[in-house]
């Protein structure tokens, strides 16, 4: 690839392009009100058709991957009015998507805390073979007592969880690599099915987990799945620095994102790797419409009856009292003067900035100031500008996108944001290859070479 | 249904029809030489396309289910010349099949020994929802040290394994039932997503496993998956008698099969159930061709170089010495006179019966006398006769079929055996409903009714 005509002027990103992933969750979208929107099938929570269509829309937009978070706790305190957040099963969803897409990478979370490593190894490797080399495993630890209770346990300490995670990832990569690259011969003429001397046991026994192996699955077109990680603690930096090719991040400011990205890069270096082998990918939530007002109105529709509850949140962020019955009015001069962004909430300065622009209380909230990631509520160019700024500031190698609604919300991103990024030379126009490893520019990783 | 015209005369089966399942394993078929047969793609081991096509062929034949065994040990001692026996991953295979079939039941083995119950619960329930009520879980214990080694463990005692299995099945059924039948409302107008008071924690804590729940997955069209079991020990009778609606069996004689079937029925009765709720389904292997000679020749082609090794086996079964260089000759009168069927091998009397018919040593073996189940090598009517005899003798409620080769071997069964069974009134001509529960005539099982 030659992007020399499209250089941005910033030496660190010159000629480089960003990655984009789609967050695929409960089938409706990232906003709690998505399931009630016009045009949305209220049965999408259980619809694999819907997930496949959504992944196909992302593939039309040349997204490098879809990302399916998972948390086997699924607290359902809001079930009376809201859908659970996650897929019914991330692996079955990806199996359906694998069969009905051609290029897009397939990434899901799998907990190292409450899964047997051998079971994770075989299921992700099978997906990798099934998808012809498009699988990624987001290897995380589980930290919620809600989750642990579903396994009849309590949560281990962070040290124990990460200790087990390091062993589990190492063991799983060893199982994935237990077949040499060319071990599977399947020669009908000679009758040789596989080269037995290139399929070897791994015999790893750690403090927490162990396995003899080998796995019974030959390499995929990309050798083996790619490791992702999600988390921001020092333990996360170490695990990702050692094993991961991509990090699913969460950061509200360029400064925080850049610090995170640098921490992961430094950790990779400590483990003897090229820092460019680890991509830091923070989240971005989007409500894309033809102008800001239209986008805000869409957000207001999506928020429904939740405004009073969100006003209470905003009060804490700004340290002032707000009246939930006066949603149509902007904050008073006295309120703005008294406001003090909470030091405990990194979203607070941005919330105050929006408030100072003079929007009504309802519109301030409709900007998504208390959402889980930075939020774009406006025309496509605003999303493109945000992404370019972060990318060129060394704060991100790409973004995972959570559209407000997973029907027209994905299409709006694909049709309104992607073309701008492509014109600016910041995003590819076509898949570079067939595998997720090719999409990410990650180095090859096959199995053992018993001759060495 | 009215089968009164088709009564067989036997009161216990009058008006009843048998069940048929297809064994779906490594993608080639049940014979080790299947992967080398003309017309077989040698890459089928990793091909989900192939599995889907095979399941579709079984659906064309109105089979009630496909059955995917699994043994997460996959000893690969013969990998130089033979494929491993199992699917890359049974759940991903069933996900692909679920998307590309409409009626056939989807049954896979899942070990209670080396899986977290919560993980089994959510994956089988998700499959059940995905397939619109066609999932079955073959709940077994793992007994091989080869398997245990892949989990860094040794095999627990049979008592412990079955103790954990009882807890796991009970817990999983409770998780499956943690949503009431009508708990999922998804009413866009009113904004009610679900009835929270009909989704309840299970709070089961046993000696081996526990879970708080609830699961986050609503009921499928059949409520919840159906429990299968496989095994023949007294422990197996108890587990199946308590929970299972079907048993994947293995028996070489009518007498053994009938005894097994009666033992499972008696166990069901002990647990307060109607014995007809548990179906005993032994295995049958098939090589179907236009006549016996053609079928034997096909088997000979499939056996390839393995004859000497099988002669050694046959020697032990018959208690006589056999010469592997004289494959073309029948056994001598002296050999037949000296032969004494091994009391340790239930296949031995049948092997001697075939030998006495005067077939050559090669042809004796080509009859499949040392295979894992009864074997039909001949025209379709021989399979139909076998099935009718066992069914009417109270030895089977149906059969799981292992064709020799999973291409034309399935088609041969569908085209040559199924029509005969249908004409005899022993097998349905059309699916009775949409769900596996309907196919098996199993009683409804939904979730909790918190009003009771």
Describe the structure.
The structure is a homodimer of 452-residue chains. With 452 residues, chain A is an alpha/beta fold. Chain A has two domains: 4-289 and 379-440, TIM Barrel (Alpha-Beta Barrel); 293-366, no CATH class. Chain A is built from 16 helices and 13 strands. In chain A, the strands form three sheets. The first copy, chain A, has an eight-stranded parallel barrel with strand order 1-2-3-4-9-10-11-13, surrounded by eight helices. Chain A has a two-stranded antiparallel sheet with strand order 5-6. In chain A, strand 10, helix 7 (254-270) and strand 11 (279-288) form a beta-alpha-beta unit. In chain A, helix 1 crosses helix 2, helix 3 (117-130) crosses helix 5 and helix 5 packs parallel to helix 6. Chain A is globular, with a radius of gyration of 23 Å. Chain A starts with 18 loop residues before the first strand and ends in a 12-residue tail after the last helix. The interface between A and B is large, with 67 and 67 residues. Chains A, B: This is NtaA/DmoA family FMN-dependent monooxygenase. Chains A, B: It comes from Rufibacter hautae.
């Amino acid at each position: 690839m030659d992007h020399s005509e499209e250089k941005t002027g910033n030496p660190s990103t010159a000629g480089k392009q960003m990655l984009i992933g789609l967050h695929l969750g409960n089938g409706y979208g990232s906003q709690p009100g998505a399931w009630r929107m016009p045009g949305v099938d209220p049965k999408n929570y259980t619809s694999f058709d819907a997930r496949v269509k959504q992944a196909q829309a992302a593939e039309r937009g040349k997204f490098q991957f879809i990302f399916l978070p998972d948390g086997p706790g699924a607290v359902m305190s809001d079930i009376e009015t809201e859908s659970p957040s996650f897929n019914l099963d991330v692996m079955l969803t990806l199996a359906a998507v694998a069969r009905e897409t051609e290029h897009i990478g397939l990434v899901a979370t799998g907990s190292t805390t409450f899964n047997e490593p051998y079971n994770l190894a075989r299921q992700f490797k099978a997906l990798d073979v099934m998808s012809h080399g498009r699988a990624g495993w987001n290897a995380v630890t589980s930290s919620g007592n809600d989750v642990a209770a579903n396994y009849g346990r309590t949560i281990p300490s962070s040290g124990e969880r990460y200790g087990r995670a390091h062993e589990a990832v190492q063991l799983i990569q060893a199982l994935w690599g237990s077949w040499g690259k060319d071990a599977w011969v399947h020669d009908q003429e000679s009758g040789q099915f596989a080269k037995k001397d290139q399929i070897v046991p791994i015999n790893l026994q750690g403090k927490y987990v162990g396995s003899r192996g080998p796995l019974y699955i030959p390499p995929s077109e990309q050798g083996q799945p790619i490791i992702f990680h999600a988390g921001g603690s020092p333990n996360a930096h170490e695990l990702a620095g050692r094993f991961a090719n991509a990090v699913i991040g969460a950061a509200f400011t360029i400064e925080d994102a850049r610090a995170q990205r640098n921490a992961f890069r430094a950790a990779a270096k400590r483990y003897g790797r090229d820092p460019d082998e680890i991509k830091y990918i923070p989240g971005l939530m989007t409500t894309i419409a033809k102008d800001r007002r239209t986008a805000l109105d869409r957000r207001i529709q999506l928020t429904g009856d939740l405004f009073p509850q969100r006003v209470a949140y905003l009060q804490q962020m700004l340290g002032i009292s707000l009246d939930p019955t006066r949603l149509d009015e902007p904050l008073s001069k006295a309120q703005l003067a008294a406001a003090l962004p909470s030091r405990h909430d990194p979203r607070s300065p941005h919330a105050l900035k929006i408030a100072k622009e003079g929007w009504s209380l309802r519109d301030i909230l409709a900007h998504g100031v208390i959402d889980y990631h930075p939020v774009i509520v406006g025309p496509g160019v605003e999303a493109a500008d945000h992404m370019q700024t972060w990318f060129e500031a060394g704060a991100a190698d790409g973004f995972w996108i959570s559209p407000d609604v997973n029907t027209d919300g994905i299409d709006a991103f694909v049709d309104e944001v992607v073309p701008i990024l492509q014109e600016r030379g910041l995003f590819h126009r076509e898949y570079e290859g067939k595998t997720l490893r090719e999409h990410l520019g990650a180095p090859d990783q096959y199995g053992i070479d018993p001759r060495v």
